[in-house]
Amino acid sequence: MVNTRILTSEFEYFEPKTVKEAVSLLAKYGKDAKVLAGGSNLLVDMKIGKVDPKYIIYIGKIPELRTISKIGTDVVVGANASFFDMMRSQELKDCSILLEALKSIQIEIKRMGTIGGNICNAAPTASAAPPLLVLNARVKVVSERGSRMIPIEEVYTGNRKTSLAPDELLTEVHIPALNSGYGAAFGEIKRKIKFAAVIGRQENICKYCRISIGGAVEKSKRVKKAESILEGKSFNESAVEAACAAAIEEIDPDNWYVREIAKDLFRKVVQKAWERAR
Amino acid sequence: MIFVNERKIKVRVNGKDCELSVKPNELLLNVLRDKLGLLGTKYGCGTGDCGACTVLINNEPRLSCLTLAATVDGAEITTIEGMATNGELHPIQEAFVKHGAIQCGFCIPGIIMMAKSFLDENPHPTDEEIKESLKGHLCRCTGYINIIKAIKAASLEMAKG
């Protein structure tokens, strides 16, 4: 049996003070290293023997990674900003679906968990993922080879897998402002199923649609089939039902219970986004 | 910058400055219990589900079983032992005793540290908010009703000043 009281693995510990230092450590140790932020995921994985890094790079002492600011219409959230930092920030006040998704996290994890950790851990149940996907967020990753911006949907490649290379550090999350008049909604049932939606409307036509799913799926993702059923067409009950059926397809057929509860949640979230759109 | 073996950290625990030597893989929980003899903070699940190990690090409630001791260098830490002042219980502790919120007591240090931070942030919580605040804390005696009552009573008492 695993003894979760102690950490049996041994590793070298680094405490870089700048992104440049962190990135040079990753260039050197990348494959054998793990970046430590809040620790609420990584240390559990280490305790249960899921990962056994030889090097730990703790980024909590890099002040530039904890800032939240506005660049143009984007809100730029530093990778090491905690959920609590985000819920308090003036800059994210208008980003209501993201804040809604963070609300259900327990108090301690709100302080420990970070946006960068949430993304890089890439759990299908990740709280921030569904809202970030429908808001078209992008992440900045930095390595000694340079930096690049990746659309969030290209970050998640599978259950606990991302497209980041071992020498890359996620430094920022860019969240674009919602187009004026667009409506957004988020809903979840425990950690079983989550949906987020952004809808733009013109009279009775749904002219823009983004829907994402998280929870009992292999990875958080956009449900493009459901989006295309609604986008560009008149918004009515039968369209929502067709989109709902497409979204439910993402959930394992054996998971019949979650499929059932997901239907109702999907309808509510899409309806709410529609009503919020003007 | 590289700490292969033990490294020195300075922390202020319950108002007292300490200099400690810790290994990279040492957890704050075990440093508090085994090196400083502060046995109030408990090891429950070790995986972030039960909240028994909650302490305040720079006034933030965090899980000490998922915190490397090395990362708290320079921090101020408060454990349940630091709640009473001059032998007088903190109003939250007082309320827990008064409302029978303590049964076996194992989960209580974590809950009280969480409640301290929770009430500092939100001095006038609703019952719903109190219930919500307890979601990261497991009480196997299932004494939640009295715990909720105690936190509510503490909030009223603390509001009096």
CATH overall fold name of the largest domain in chain B = Ubiquitin-like (UB roll)
What is the helix tally of chain A? 11
Residue runs with pLDDT of under 50 for 5 or more positions of chain B: none
Q: Report the end-to-end length of chain A measured between terminal Cα atoms.
A: 56 Å
CATH architecture of the largest domain in chain A: 2-Layer Sandwich
| Content of β-strand of chain A | 25-35%
Contiguous low-pLDDT stretches of chain A (5 residues minimum) are none
Backbone shape of chain A: globular
Provide a quick synopsis of the model.
Chain A is an alpha+beta fold and 278 residues long. Chain A has eleven helices and 15 strands.
Q: Characteristics of this structure?
A:
heterodimer; A: 278 residues; alpha+beta; Uridine Diphospho-n-acetylenolpyruvylglucosamine Reductase, domain 2; Uridine Diphospho-n-acetylenolpyruvylglucosamine Reductase, domain 3; Enolase-like, domain 1; 3 domains; 5-stranded antiparallel β-sheet; 11 helices; 15 strands; B: 161 residues; Ubiquitin-like (UB roll); DNA polymerase, domain 1; 2 domains; 5-stranded mixed β-sheet; 6 strands
Topology:
The complex is a heterodimer of chains A (278) and B (161).
Chain A: E1 12-14, H1 19-29, E2 33-36, H2 42-47, E3 55-58, E4 68-71, E5 74-78, H3 83-88, H4 96-103, H5 107-112, H6 115-121, H7 129-134, E6 138-143, E7 146-151, H8 152-155, E8 156-158, E9 161-162, E10 169-175, E11 183-189, E12 193-202, E13 205-215, E14 221-222, H9 224-230, E15 233-234, H10 237-248, H11 256-276
Parallel strand pairs in A: 1-3, 2-3
Antiparallel strand pairs in A: 4-5, 5-10, 6-7, 6-10, 8-9, 11-12, 12-13, 13-14, 13-15
Helix pairs in contact in A: 9-10, 10-11
Chain B: E1 2-3, E2 7-13, E3 16-22, H1 28-35, E4 54-57, E5 60-63, E6 76-78, H2 91-98, H3 108-121, H4 127-133, H5 144-160
Parallel strand pairs in B: 2-6
Antiparallel strand pairs in B: 2-3, 4-5, 4-6
Helix pairs in contact in B: 2-5
